[in-house]
Write the C-alpha cells for this entry.
Amino acid sequence: MSDNVLSQFKQAEEAVKPADTGRKLRIGIIGTGGISWCHFYNYLKMPDVEIVAIADLIPERAIERKEQFGLDNVRIYPSHKELLDNEELDGVSVCTYHRQHAEPTIYALDKGVPVLLEKPFTVTLDEAVEVMRAEKRSGKFVSVGFQPRFNPNMQMIKKIVQSGVLGEIYYIQTGGGRRRGIPGGSFIEQSTAGIGAIGDIGCYSLDAVLNPLGYPKPLTVSGYVSDFFGKDPKYNGEDAKVFDVDDFGAAFVRLEGGIILDFRIAWAMHPDTPGDTIIFGKEGALRIPSTDCWNGSLDNAMILYHDVCGEQTETRIPLKEEETSDFYMKIRSFLDAIKTGGPSPVPTSEIVYNQAIIDGIVKSAKLGREIEIEIPEI
Ligand SMILES: NC(=O)c1ccc[n+]([C@@H]2O[C@H](COP(=O)([O-])OP(=O)(O)OC[C@H]3O[C@@H](n4cnc5c(N)ncnc54)[C@H](O)[C@@H]3O)[C@@H](O)[C@H]2O)c1
C-alpha cells in the first residue's frame, strides 16, 4: 500500500554503537551446551571481548567448546560457583537449562557481575523475584536473552503500536508453534526444564505483543496445559518415557488497562497453527502471521486493517531483512550496557510480567480455575 501510510511508522533506526577498542571485557560462559555455541560465536566476533573462563557440570562439554573455538587460554570450571569464585569478570552469559537459571544468576549478581541470562527468565515467578532482589542489592543488571527483540520485524510491531494508528488496544490473540517440534535433552524433564512449550517458545510469543504495549501488568490468568504428544511414543519415540512437561498451553489473561490477552502455544499439534497473532485496537488491527516463535523472523507480511476516508483498508507491511543478526545484537547490547553501567537492554522489570503469566498458567491449570497474579515486592 501507499508509502504515505507506512511512513507513519518509520523512525530513525537505532544506531549500532561502535565497539570500544580499549580494555577488553572479561567474559565468562556458564553452561556450554547447545545454545552456548551462539554465545561463543558472537562474543568472538567482538573486538572488545575476551572469553576468559567457562563452566559446565559435564566437563567434556566445556572441553569440546574450548577446542572447537581454539580458546587455548580459557580456564574451565566444574560449575558456576567455582567460576565466579575464582574469576574477575565484567560479565557472564548464563546458558544453563531453565532449572539452573536463577541460582547461577543470583550468584553472579552477588559477586557484582552483570548477567546475560538465556530465556525463559526463570521457571517460577518466585525465582524471578529472587533474581530481581539480587539485582537490586548488587546494583548490577540482568539482560534476558530475547534475541527477537532485535529483529526489525518485531521492532516494527512496536513502532506500529506506539504510533497510535491502532488506537487504544483492547484485545490480543497471540501464539504460535509447530505441528511436530518437541525438543529433547534438557527441555523435556521437570528436573532440568520445569516448564515445556509455555516457557521455551511461549515467552517469545508473549514478548512479541507485550513489549510493543509497554508491558501492561497481568492481573488474572485462566490457564491450560497438556502433554498428549510429548507423552505418546507414536509422536515422541523413546523420549515419551521421560517427558514430563507441557507440550501445549493456552491462557486467557486480563491485563492492566482492560486489555485481554488470548494465548496459545504448541510444540506439537495437529493443525499447522493455533492462529495468527492479532492486535485489536479501536482504530485499527494488526495481523502478524503465526510462526515457530523463536527467532522473530516472519515468513509473510503483517497486515494492518484500518479505515481510510471511511473505506475498510488493508495495508501490507513489507517484510524487513535483518542487517545484523539478532543474536549478534543481543550480545552486543549486553556488552554496551556493561560499558555504560546499564540500563539493561531486556530488563527483568518487563520480563517479570512475562514470567508471571507463565507461572500463572501453571498454577491455574493445576487448580482448574482462574487465579489472580500477585507479584511480591522486590
Ligand atoms: N535464545 C535461544 O534462541 C535459545 C535457543 C536454545 C536454548 N536456549 C535456552 O538456553 C538454555 C540452555 O539450552 P541448551 O539447549 O544449551 O541446553 P543444554 O542442556 O544443551 O545445555 C545446558 C548446559 O548447562 C549445564 N549446566 C547446568 N547447570 C549448570 C551449572 N550450575 N553450572 C555449569 N553448568 C551447568 C549443563 O550441564 C548443560 O551442559 C535453556 O534455558 C534454553 O531455553 C535459548
Remarks:
- The longest strand covers residues 169-177.
- DSSP finds twelve helices and 15 strands in the chain.
